[in-house]
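Lab intake sheet, docking and co-folding queue.

SAMPLE TYPE: protein with bound small molecule
LIGAND NAME: zinc ion
LIGAND FORMAT: SMILES
REQUESTED OUTPUT: full 3D complex as structure tokens
PRIORITY: normal
SUBMITTED BY: R.K., bench team

The fields below were copied directly from the construct record.
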Amino acid sequence: MAFSEILGQDSAVALLKKSIQNQRIPSAFLFTGPNHIGKQKTMTAVAQNLNCLRGGEDACLSCDACLQIAHQSFPDYSMVVPDGKFIKIDQIKEALKWLHLRSNTGNYRVLGIKNAEKLNKESANAFLKTLEEPPAQTLIILSAENSQQLLETIVSRCQIIQFRLLKKDHVQSILTAHQNLTREQIAFLSCFAMGKVPLDWIEKVDLLQTLRENIIEFLISLSAARMEEIFNTIAKWGPAKEKEWAYMLDFLEFWFRDLDWLAHDLHEDSLINQDRIKQIRICLQQFHPQQIRVTYNKIIQTRERIVMNAHVSLAMEALWIYIKRNLAI
Ligand SMILES: [Zn+2]
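RESULT FIELD (auto-filled):
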């Protein structure tokens, strides 16, 4: 991943390039910003730029070092990802031990910590000494959605690099590079991506398109028979399945946001479901305008309750019953 391939993060990339070119590399960077906008790719680009054997203005991507980093087989590049809900103390101890080993190769040793907000207090504290006195020729890169989620003592020892949500044309360019997506799927995903490119959405695009069509149909004709059908579908998913409930909540949230938008006579250009304006208008006639925002809030609450361990099927059923009760007709 060359810096030139990172789309939509010009100021972050410019800062990193300058730092490498001037050989003023801090002991640690902290990449902040939402997930799925290129922080991970940029970590790889930094490791490649620091170790590229050709040493040009950007990584060559074809020397042994660049290739090994791309394939995660480079001996001086390591990545820590959360093991379950947290990054555990043993993971950090092992990573720090590795970081302090003297590299015989003369390479720049780079340690990435993905989702550093999941460092628990014990793991974060284990880190502090190394951040204060890092071994020579090493760089730590932490990534987190928000610096406020980290201990101030960690943040103050890092140079913060802010990443931003991507513009729609950048999202489309990234999606277009995925050769197995059709033009319709690219349009669908870029509407819902909201400035991000979640890989799981790309992998499950067929499932997601079907889910959204089902939800639109359910909302437009909420008969008793339809409700039975919805409950059967939800019961089949169960909590162990592929997060269908989470996608259903996403689509419901987007749909009611669009309804709210139109109920306030705001412009159609800003709708998320751009390709379904006719159906949004049909659905709009079925709800009292004041109930739309209330239902929207109920969708958000349902997600929060499930995250806090509420029973998935029961919570989803309760939400659909609520939606049906609020129909104006
Ligand atoms: Zn190279």
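REVIEWER NOTE: The chain has two domains: 3-164, 204-325.
SIGN-OFF: pending second check by T.M.
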